[in-house]
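User: Can you predict the 3D structure of Thiol:disulfide oxidoreductase? Sequence below.
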Amino acid sequence: MIDFYYAPTPNGWKVAIMLEESGLDYSLKLMDLHAGEQFSQDFMAISPNAKMPAILDHDPPESYGGDPVPVFESAEILLYLSEKCGRFAPPASDRRARKELGEWLFWQTGSQGPMAGQLSHFKNYAPADKRDYGFERYLGEYDRNLGVLENRLSDRPFIMGTDYTIADMQAFPWAFIAKPLGASLDEFPRIADWRGRIKARPAVRRAIDLAKDRQNNGRHTVENDTVMYNQSAKSLKSGGAGKA
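Assistant: Sure. Here are the predicted structure tokens for Thiol:disulfide oxidoreductase:
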């Protein structure tokens, strides 16, 4: 059994999609991030960054030894789970394909994800009188990353080629919510097609619907939630947010 620490966000969906696609048994540990559950010592022993998603695998592969294995950061979780189930990644023997898989996982982790996350912040959560510059800045970066992905999909149905992999699972959630971010896929027809095909997968629908009633939907903003926003290093020590 895998303990899956989750909240219904694009980052949470990445791992939810993989768990649903793979059929691996998991126990959902739904987290109330606005109550600061991510700062508990028990959770930070699994995820030192005090961020979900994270997993604790009570039945790891033999090569990891017998003790439960904690894994944090979505890209590493996806790699770990693909190794565990033997699916959704090129074989380790195909070094060129594994190199490309790593490139696209790092691209999402270092470019698409952070730019989309900042765009979401300024679109949905920042103080109204401070949104304009940040929104324009990160909308431009979000679109630039859409261009990168559009080019990649110019001669292939999925990021890695003909096969649907963890690279698609990782990049899909932040493309899935383009419209709520204030962006458009009108100029990115290949992404729109890729997004539609992935969205239609039953496992993806189940993952996106997981704890759907707990989505933020604008209820928490910088102005009314000091746990999620304005965090500092003190947050990790005090079990909550501190003003920077």
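The chain has nine helices and four strands. The two ends are 39 Å apart (CA to CA).
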